[in-house]
Amino acid sequence: MITGTFTQDKQAEIEVALTHLEKLLRDNCTITLVAEKNSLAVTGTFSESNKPEVEVALMHLEKLMLEYNFTQVHRK
């Protein structure tokens, strides 16, 4: 899960990054973008084969945001 805030001038880039991330995550992902509050939240799972691309997408999001919180939960 990743949550964060961003500046208004980054919103278009954030939306592109979220669209890409959504394609990498499984069907049970949830993306919440609250443009008027400049905040977002993303939760979801991914296959092991997509892990490198997901990590790159998350790093890109982190660079675009003012502040963020990344929580990783491992399941067996």
Summarize the structure.
The protein is α+β, with helices and mostly antiparallel strands and 76 residues long. Helices cover 37% and strands 24% of the residues.
Give me the secondary-structure topology.
Elements: E1 2-5, H1 11-24, E2 30-34, E3 39-43, H2 51-64, E4 67-70
Antiparallel strand pairs: 1-3, 1-4, 2-3
Helix pairs in contact: 1-2
Give a written overview of the molecule.
- There is one protein chain.
- With 76 residues, this protein is of the alpha+beta class.
- Helices cover 37% and strands 24% of the residues.
- It contains 2 helices and 4 strands.
- It has helices at 11-24, 51-64, and strands at 2-5, 30-34, 39-43, 67-70.
- Strands 2-3-1-4 form a 4-stranded antiparallel sheet, with helices on one face.
- Helix 1 packs antiparallel against helix 2 (51-64).
- It is globular, with a radius of gyration of 12 Å.
- It starts with a strand and ends in a 6-residue tail after the last strand.
Secondary-structure class: alpha+beta
- List the helices and strands in order: EHEEHE
**Which stretches are low in confidence, meaning pLDDT under 50 for 5 or more residues running?**
none
In which range does the helix fraction lie?
A: 25-40%
> Number of helix segments?
2
Record keyword descriptors for this entry.
76 residues, alpha+beta, four-stranded antiparallel beta sheet, 2 helices, 4 strands, 37% helix, 24% strand
